[in-house]
């Protein structure tokens, strides 16, 4: 934690959409009279039928219901494309930077985007997709991913993107979870110079399909691919059969726009549901104000569209604002650790948004990779996904930003649709490691962890919750409203609970201290420890498994797995590798345990509950504070675990 404060420069403030006074005014207005405030700011999107009701929210457990602009109608794709055609039809909407730096980048204008999306919409219709149907998108970072999202939005279909790094099993579970009848994928795709066979994964995911799920395939690599006996279609062939006339469907503000699966502390991933109107207002407003986006700027968010960050800040927010958004197919270290900065120079990027894990990884490669590029077009730097350590913050600030670009550390979640706590760069002085102050309309509270009482003093420490709704909030868990309520509204009654710990300092700045539930944050990606455990115990040689996070220099948190083998099975390095490969195959590479420790026994209470607190401490190398172990059924297992702790 650092006490240093970094105010924005006078020049920056002078040109910013929001300065300190305006932030105070907007914030006060949004809290004092949310109805009036959002009646006005809801107009930032174009409505087909204007709303007359602004907000209708109940956070009461058992009765949770969240509605914004509920009688308005609109079309999200029309807001992201059609309404810009008259004023900026020839402006670039999407800059696409391919994996190979030698391959040509593409500039897609709003007019071209319109044509591509309308045609893709008609293809979807020809394949039988109707309003309300679910479409799974399993694509690499190519423009077709944005076309597919917007085509769904245009015809009122609900998309569910599955990150292309997920395994066939994980993909299959998500296809079934939302009962999708169409999957959009690519033949295979390069990333960091390596090919992923996406269509093969889809084939495997659909091996036992009983729903006749269709598959629409984008030709990206031209590689030979296996075709199923029926139900597979090339996009380029289907495009030849359609014209580019596709009127946007009139959607209700509260119709679902997309489902995005995310990990929780228990069970299988849940389908987070975002709806049309409130989500778009939130994505657009946060994009404009948090990044101080101005017309003509080139905005680059390095996330993948498989995560919410890509939804809100590559596609929906920027395009709703008529921005130029950059989409990058590759990885930060290919062909070398200068790639991000090469792309910034090449496309004259003005706002750059990435994750602390990437910053730490690049920081470790030395400053030369940054310094050989001209980064003078960058005005704002952003981070997201996990707390940023002051060392990485300072490097980002000095080496990348030359001490001249405000850093916005944006705290939010898949569930929140967009930023919740973040500096507005012209308004709020930053402190390295703090997400600073709430965005306009957001009412964070710090609750006492045990009692749930709201702490009213400025300085506070406990768990982070929200007192009231904001337009971008998720509305439900797909097909399971009870789970929605139980996850977010049960433990602390009357509040939305984030699952994060938090400290508020004497200046009212918020410092997120990390998850307080069984969710870990690996390279800015959320992972449920329960998911990794169930993958491990699905292996025939594993009797029991317990997974916790531990501090990892680059990833933030690494995955530490304690594994008890079936009687008769011998621990070995081969078996360790086998289990790693097994989890990769069950979930995906991001879930692969970093360390596996063989555990003859796990610390359990007499009632059989695994004491994760102890496992976390051992993984963290923090034996001094194991706490009371006397309630364990067999306290001696702890000594064995400590003795055989795996070194990092
Ligand atoms: C969790 C949400 C929001 C898109 C990326 C991750 C952690 C996120 C920050 C930040 C500290 C952060 C929280 C949160 N987190 N941003 N700026 N500072 N922690 O989305 O997968 O839904 O994960 O990421 O723990 O609850 P997600």
TrEMBL record:
The modification N6-acetyllysine is found at residue 609. The keyword Hydrolase does not apply. Residues 82-467 form the AMP-dependent synthetase/ligase domain. InterPro entries: Ac_CoA_lig (IPR011904), ACAS_N (IPR032387), AMP-bd_C (IPR025110), AMP-bd_C_sf (IPR045851), AMP-binding_CS (IPR020845), AMP-dep_synth/lig_dom (IPR000873), ANL_N_sf (IPR042099). GO terms for molecular function: acetate-CoA ligase activity; AMP binding; ATP binding; metal ion binding. Acetylated. Deacetylation by the SIR2-homolog deacetylase activates the enzyme. Its EC number is 6.2.1.1. GO terms for cellular component: cytosol. Residues 531-609 form the AMP-binding enzyme C-terminal domain. SUPFAM superfamilies: Acetyl-CoA synthetase-like. This is Acetyl-coenzyme A synthetase.
């Amino acid at each position: 934690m650092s006490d240093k404060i970094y105010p924005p420069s006078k020049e920056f403030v002078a040109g910013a959409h929001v300065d300190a006074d305006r932030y105070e005014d907007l914030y006060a207005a949004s809290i004092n009279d949310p109805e009036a405030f959002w009646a006005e700011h809801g107009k930032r999107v174009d409505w087909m039928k204007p709303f007359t009701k602004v907000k209708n929210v109940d956070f009461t457990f058992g009765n949770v219901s969240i509605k914004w602009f509920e009688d308005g109608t609109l079309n999200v794709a029309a807001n992201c494309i059609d309404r810009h055609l008259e004023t900026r039809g020839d402006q670039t909407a999407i800059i696409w930077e391919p994996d190979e730096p030698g391959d040509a980048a593409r500039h897609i204008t709003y007019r071209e985007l319109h044509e591509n999306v309308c045609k893709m919409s008609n293809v979807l219709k020809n394949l039988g997709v109707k309003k309300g149907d679910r479409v799974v998108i399993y694509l690499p970072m190519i423009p077709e991913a944005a076309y597919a999202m917007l085509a769904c939005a245009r015809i009122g279909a609900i998309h569910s993107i599955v990150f292309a790094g997920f395994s066939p099993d994980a993909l299959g579970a998500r296809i079934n979870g939302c009962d999708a009848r169409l999957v959009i994928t690519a033949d295979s795709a390069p990333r960091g110079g390596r090919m992923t066979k996406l269509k093969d994964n889809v084939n495997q995911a659909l091996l036992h399909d009983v729903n006749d799920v269709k598959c629409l395939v984008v030709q990206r690599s031209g590689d030979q691919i296996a075709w199923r006996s029926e139900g597979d279609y090339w996009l380029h062939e289907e495009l030849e059969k359609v014209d580019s006339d596709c009127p946007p469907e009139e959607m209700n503000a509260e119709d679902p726009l997309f489902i995005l699966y995310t990990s929780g502390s228990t069970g299988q991933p849940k389908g987070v549901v975002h709806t049309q109107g409130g989500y778009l207002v939130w994505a657009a407003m946060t994009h404009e104000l948090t990044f101080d986006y101005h017309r003509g700027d080139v905005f680059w968010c390095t996330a993948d569209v498989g995560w919410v960050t890509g939804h809100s800040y590559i596609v929906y927010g920027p395009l709703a604002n008529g921005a130029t958004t950059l989409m990058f197919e590759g990885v930060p270290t290919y062909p070398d650790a200068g790639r991000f900065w090469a792309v910034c120079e090449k496309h004259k990027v003005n706002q750059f948004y990435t994750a602390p894990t990437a910053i730490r990884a690049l920081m470790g490669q030395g400053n030369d990779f940054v310094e050989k590029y001209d980064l003078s077009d960058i005005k704002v730097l952003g981070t997201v996904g996990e707390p940023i350590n002051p060392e990485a913050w300072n490097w980002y600030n000095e080496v990348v930003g030359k001490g001249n670009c405000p850093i916005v550390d944006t705290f939010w979640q898949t569930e929140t649709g967009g930023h919740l706590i973040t500096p507005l760069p012209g308004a709020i002085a930053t402190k390295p490691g703090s997400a600073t102050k709430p965005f306009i309309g957001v009412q964070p509270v710090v609750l006492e962890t045990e009692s749930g009482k709201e702490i009213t003093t400025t300085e506070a420490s406990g768990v982070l919750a929200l007192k009231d709704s904001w337009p971008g909030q998720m509305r439900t868990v797909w097909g399971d409203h009870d789970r929605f309520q139980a996850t977010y509204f049960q433990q602390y009654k009357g509040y939305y609970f984030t699952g994060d710990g938090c400290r508020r300092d004497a200046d009212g700045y918020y410092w997120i201290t990390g998850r307080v539930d069984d969710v870990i944050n690996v390279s800015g990606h959320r992972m449920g420890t329960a998911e990794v455990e169930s993958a491990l115990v699905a292996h025939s040689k594993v009797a029991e498994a317990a997974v916790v996070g531990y501090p990892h220099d680059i990833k933030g948190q690494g995955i530490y797995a304690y594994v008890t083998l079936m009687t008769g099975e011998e621990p070995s390095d081969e078996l360790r590798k086998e289990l790693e490969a097994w989890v990769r195959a069950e979930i995906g590479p991001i879930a692969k345990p970093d360390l596996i420790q063989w555990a003859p026994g796990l610390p359990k209470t007499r009632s059989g509950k695994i004491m994760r607190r102890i496992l976390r401490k051992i993984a963290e190398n923090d034996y001094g504070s194991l706490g009371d172990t006397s309630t364990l059924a067999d306290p001696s297992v702890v000594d064995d675990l400590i003795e055989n702790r795996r070194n990092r």
